[in-house]
Design a protein that fits this description.
Layout: E1 4-7, H1 11-23, E2 27-32, H2 40-43, E3 47-50, H3 63-72, E4 77-79, H4 89-97, E5 101-102, H5 107-114, H6 116-125, E6 133-134, H7 141-151, E7 155-159, E8 168-171, H8 177-192, E9 197-201, E10 206-216, E11 220-232, E12 235-241, H9 248-264, E13 268-278, E14 288-294, H10 301-308, H11 312-320, E15 337-344, E16 346-347, E17 353-354, E18 357-358, E19 361-363, E20 369-372, E21 379-380, E22 387-395, H12 398-410, E23 413-415, H13 421-428, H14 431-435, H15 442-445, H16 447-451, H17 458-468, E24 491-498, E25 501-510, E26 514-519, E27 522-526, H18 528-531, E28 536-539, E29 542-545, E30 551-555, H19 558-562, E31 570-572, E32 577-582, E33 589-590, E34 595-601, E35 604-609, E36 614-617, E37 626-627, E38 632-638
Parallel strand pairs: 1-2, 1-4, 2-3, 4-5
Antiparallel strand pairs: 6-9, 7-8, 7-9, 10-11, 10-13, 11-12, 12-15, 13-14, 15-22, 16-17, 18-21, 19-23, 20-22, 24-25, 24-30, 25-26, 26-27, 28-29, 29-30, 31-38, 32-34, 32-37, 33-36, 34-35, 36-38
Helix pairs in contact: 4-5, 12-13
Length: 643
């Protein structure tokens, strides 16, 4: 049995592996970059080794340093997780040559499946169906064009060393082939250091269905299938097990083919045989083709665990230590349905640009299995994959699993970063997904509808204002919130901004927790019951409203609004305060929005910014200087336009 395991990874998969190891009584050793010194995966392990640097090349890809750390700290095994070094046969071999246990398939098996063309030839020999195509050595334009013509358009050009959609191009017409080939080869060379490609028939309405396999080096079993067809730019978004509308005869045929593939290379540990399936008609035993084999644990492995009631990481650790397959094929039975959604820190309304920063508020919805590598208060950095969590829901059938996942997502609250939460909610409610009738092109076809951001309604503005004022806390006593005035309720004003829309909201509070809110002349009366219906959070100067969609409002600091540059260019103190910091010097050129002075007043710090571009003149502000309201702190002389 393994005594101490070094986990050569980070994030949610490192936390996942550590959990199974702990349950088996195995000590764990984390590795971490400088950016991950306080990361959740470090806290999840018994010990940690810090490799320095921020980028993967400086840390998680340093194979020699990782092996040295294992030997120095007394680890006897290394688990690579997925990504990074997990499919590097040289690393697997080096681990074993160092006298350590490699928790994964043999290096020879990784090499056998490492190049798509060689893997397809091997699978064809093993009797596994492959897509009609050209996998030859000759890479001249003329030969590849000839192959495409023989296969018949449309075709796919695919990098033999590819993955994640890199080096892949669809070609619909012969006259487009040369340009697409050059582009694919260039991308493949840059990403993998290998420009070779293969040509395959393009499958219309393709579904991506994969079979989980597991071997012990002697025998192999399949652990049913997963449907991974919901993809964006060849990256999986939603995965589920079992696949919708999968006839048992097709499931059995795919399972047998996947086992043949694993046994053909003497496979040990967890692996996945991926098939492309023709979804243009009902699935049949002749409609699936081998695509590739991933010689590692998959990101989406939890849905398989959920329907089978097994722990794949525990199986990996047992087999790596010399054990045999825990179950025979006829002892493996699936029950229920499980769906996984990948929650990322990315802005789906802006082309899925990654979002980085601090997770000021993080609360996952109930009823979900959560696999995460972050915690509230943690950071999402620019150095690694922006995944926040994998959210998994399981039920007795697909409809119940889908309902649980939707509810859990809608009740998930994240503040501080942009996320794809709303996109996932829209996707799970898409009529084709609900019906189980979808293919890999669904997201691209309906991208506009799936990423459409709603405009806030007057009630949303009202709720955001009340959230910013701290009045949506249902547990507090609001008897004193109304304030004291002689004749009318106290009226408070608050400036909010949603994207590029600025709105001043006026709030009057009445006894009994009633709020009367004026939003652009529309009067809303909100009682305690109404106020508690939609959760909201105030974090880092922003009000977040959660529900089917997340709405984010900037709460405009009233001092920043009043501290604008006057007509003569003067920046004045809006109230008495202490100058905490001066960002500029006399004569300095500044742009609109540049910070000039930080003023501390009423135990809060406020940044006074330039309202237009120009040169700093008459700078009187000094650090630690006490100033009165109306005092001129600086003058910004407007930039002169060229004649």
């Amino acid at each position: 049995m393994i005594q101490k395991l070094l986990i050569a990874n980070r994030g949610e998969i490192a936390c996942r592996i550590a959990r199974s190891a702990r349950e088996m009584g195995i000590a764990t050793l984390a590795i971490a970059s400088e950016a991950d010194e306080e990361a959740l995966h470090v806290q999840s392990c018994d010990e940690a080794v810090y490799l320095g640097g921020h980028s993967p090349a400086e840390s998680y890809l340093r194979s020699d340093a990782i092996i040295a750390a294992a030997l120095e700290c007394g680890a006897d095994a290394i688990h690579p997780g997925y990504g990074f070094l997990s499919e590097d046969p040289d690393f697997a071999q080096a681990v074993q040559e160092a006298g350590l246990i490699w928790v994964g398939p043999p290096a020879a098996a990784i090499r056998a499946m490492g190049l798509k063309d060689a893997a397809k030839a091997l699978m064809q020999k093993a009797g596994v169906p492959i897509v009609p195509g050209y996998h030859g050595e000759t890479q001249s334009l003329e030969r590849l064009q000839q192959a495409a013509a023989e296969i018949g358009y449309p075709v796919l050009i695919k990098a033999v060393a590819g993955g994640g959609g890199k080096g892949m191009r669809r070609v619909d017409r012969p006259e487009e082939f040369a340009a697409h080939l050059a582009s694919a080869q260039s991308e493949a060379q840059g990403a993998f250091g290998n420009a070779r490609v293969l040509i395959e028939k393009f499958i219309a309405n393709p579904r991506h269905i994969e079979i989980q396999v597991f071997g012990d080096g002697q025998k192999a079993v399949h652990l049913y299938e997963r449907d991974c067809s919901l993809q964006r730019r060849h990256q999986k978004v939603i995965e589920e097990a079992p696949a919708p509308h999968m006839p048992n005869a097709v499931r059995d045929a795919m399972g047998r083919a996947a086992v043949r593939a694993a046994q053909a290379i003497g496979y040990a540990s967890a692996g996945t045989v991926e098939f492309i399936v023709d979804g243009s008609a009902a699935l049949n035993e002749d409609s699936f083709y081998f695509m590739e084999m991933n010689t590692r644990l998959q990101v989406e492995h939890p849905v398989t665990e959920e329907i089978l009631g097994i722990d794949l990481v525990a199986w990996q650790l047992q087999v790596a230590a010399g054990g045999l397959l825990p179950l025979k094929q006829d002892e493996i039975h699936a029950q229920g349905h499980s769906i996984e959604a990948r929650l990322y820190a990315e802005d789906s309304t802006q082309g899925f640009l990654p979002s980085i920063g601090q997770l000021h508020h993080l609360n996952f919805g109930p009823g979900l299995r959560v696999e995460t590598g972050v915690a509230q208060g943690g950071q999402v950095t620019p150095y690694y994959d922006p995944m926040i969590a994998k959210l998994i829901a399981t039920g007795p059938d697909r409809a119940s699993a889908l309902r649980r996942l939707l509810r859990g997502l809608k009740l998930t609250q994240i503040a501080g970063l942009k996320t794809n939460r709303d996109f996932l909610i829209a996707l799970l409610q898409h009529e084709d997904f609900v019906a189980g009738s979808f293919d890999t092109g669904l997201i691209a076809r309906d991208m506009e509808g799936l990423t459409r951001a709603p405009a806030p309604a007057p009630e949303d503005w009202a709720r955001a204002a009340l959230c910013a004022m701290g009045l949506l806390d249902t547990g507090r006593d609001r008897q004193g919130d109304a304030g004291f005035t002689l004749f009318t309720p106290l009226r408070q004003s608050l400036a909010l901004r949603h994207q590029d829309q600025l709105q001043t909201v006026h709030v009057s509070l009445r006894p009994g927790g009633q709020a009367v809110v004026d939003v652009a002349g529309e009067i809303l009366e909100l009682g305690p019951r109404t106020l508690s219906q939609r959760p909201a959070v105030l974090a880092a100067g922003k009000a977040y409203l959660f529900g089917e969609q997340t709405l984010v409002f900037d709460v405009i600091d009233p001092l920043e609004r009043t501290a604008t540059v006057q007509s003569d260019g003067a920046i004045t103190a809006p109230m008495p305060g202490l100058v905490k910091q001066v960002f500029v010097r006399a004569g300095q050129e500044v742009a609109a929005g540049d910070p000039i002075v930080v003023l501390e007043a009423m135990k809060m710090q406020h940044t006074l910014c330039a309202d237009h571009a120009g040169r700093v003149e008459n700078l009187t502000a000094r650090q630690d200087q006490q100033v009165d309201a109306g005092v001129v702190l600086a003058v910004i002389e407007a930039a002169q336009e060229d004649a």
